Amino acid sequence: MVPASPIPRHLGLDWLRVGAFAILIFYHIGMVFVPWGFHVRLDTVPLVTLPMLASNPWRLLLLFVVSGYATRALATRHTSLLGFVKGRSIRLLIPLVFGIAVLVPPQSWVELVTQHGYDAPFLRFWLHDYFGFRLLAGVSLPAWNHLWFVGYLWVYTVAIALLLAIGGRWGARVQALYDRVFGGIGGLVLPLGWLLAVNMWLFVGQSETHGLIDDALAHALYLPAVLFGFAMAGSHRVLATFRRWWWPAAIVALAAYLLAADLEWRWPGLARGPHWAGLTFSATRAVQAWAAIIALIGVAERFWNHDHPWRRTLTEAVFPFYLIHQTIIVVVAYWLRGTALPLALDAVVLATVTIAGCWAFYLAGRAIPWARPLIGLRPTLRKTP
């Protein structure tokens, strides 16, 4: 069975999703200028790490919470779980396969050329090496790179469908329990306690692999986030709690960010910092993450839950933007390596071309009926004669 009560569209969360994806795009532009691992780098500018830390702990966690809410809303529109899973599979797996086969290969080629001395042209790489299902100079091929989010979301969607199939009759009781546990102070502190446990006890010093099978850390973070958002879609109490506490949460998130930024500036990467600095940094990231999510959902609930002529277009465009943006960033950054432009101009060119390229990709794909499913859009409905 599927959840019976229809979930109204939350326009505030639509705006929040658009904003979160916009931040993600600019975050990946920033990756070209920081010492963290990325497919291509123009130069290292340590100061760029500080604004990136402002969204680093919460941007993906928030997207999974919002995706959980959207999953619940979509599930209520289907008469069967099979129809729900089929619909989500079409919307997620077709773009994922298209992305792995067509959109991601330029990223892998640029990484091999710039970091591993690979000298074959792109067409030869794509036709002869990319689909080899092996490691090439330490790079796994084929790859899904930034599209791991899509794959994980599909897996979590199937997991939710299985839970509904097995225990759907207990849904009302589970929802009532969720409301009691998270509808007040529990919604503020219990998820934070879990994040602290993950960061400081269960997975100390570990990083996400985005390899699905060997990525227990990511699943410990993102699967609970999706489930939380799924249940939040049916809970007025949790949304009211976030609405009430958004401004204290925003202050806490800002204070935690400032402390984390100070630690990062003193000991870049925390590699040579004292032990206490690493523990403090992990704790502040957890606090910042959940406090920021409370604040942002609370703001969306209180101030942004209204429509605008641009909302429909932007909410439709964010997924195609997500699919293509990193490929544009990597390819343009690779081209900029040979221009000797000032770094500030590099950043302007990179941002401008990325935004323009994303719009071109979306508008072109939207206008071509057979291309719409490839970029995650619904097929154009045929007009009745």
UniProtKB/TrEMBL annotation:
Signal peptide feature range: none
InterPro entries: Acyl_transf_3_dom, Glucan_succinyl_AcylTrfase
GO molecular function, one term: acyltransferase activity, transferring groups other than amino-acyl groups
Superkingdom, natural source: Bacteria
Keywords on record: Acyltransferase, Transferase
Acyltransferase domain residues: 12-362
Name of the protein: Acyltransferase family protein
Lineage, top ranks: Bacteria, Pseudomonadati, Pseudomonadota, Alphaproteobacteria, Sphingomonadales
